[in-house]
Amino acid sequence: MRDTKRTTIDLPVGLFKRAKVAAAVRGTTLRQLIIDALEATVPSDPTKAAPWRRLAGGFADLEEELKGLDLAVVDIHQPEER
User: Fold this and answer.
1) Structural domain boundaries, residue 35
2) 14 within some domain
3) How far apart are CA 26 and CA 15, in angstroms?
4) N or C terminus: fewer CB in 10 A for the chain?
5) Residue 79 and residue 2: Cα distance in Å, rounded?
């Protein structure tokens, strides 16, 4: 068996329901969904992360805005290619 640590977390009801649905849609468990999210978010060695990202907390909540900005930059630099 894998080395694991059992924990309990309190989630807002709406987030819990959305997570359960997301797990079901992906054909996985809530446990695995949370593990995957943590693996994608938490660096394997937080001490080696860029110092400003440790202080700023990264840009996870800005992901959609950054995608929009990327599209805007493409539109500005390559308006005819779209």
Assistant:
1) 1-42
2) yes
3) 16
4) N
5) 52
Can you give the pTM of this predicted structure?
0.54
Number of domains in the chain: 1
For 2-61, write each residue's pLDDT tens digit. 798 999 999 999 999 999 999 999 999 999 999 999 988 887 776 665 555 555 555 666
> Has residue 34 been placed in a domain?
yes
Hey, is 19 helix, strand or coil?
Answer: helix
Token code pair at residue 66: 């950054």
CA distance 20 to 16: 6
CA-CA distances (angstroms) from residue 10 to 14, 28, 60, 82?
A: 12, 21, 21, 45
Task: Report yes or no on 62 lying in a domain.
Answer: no
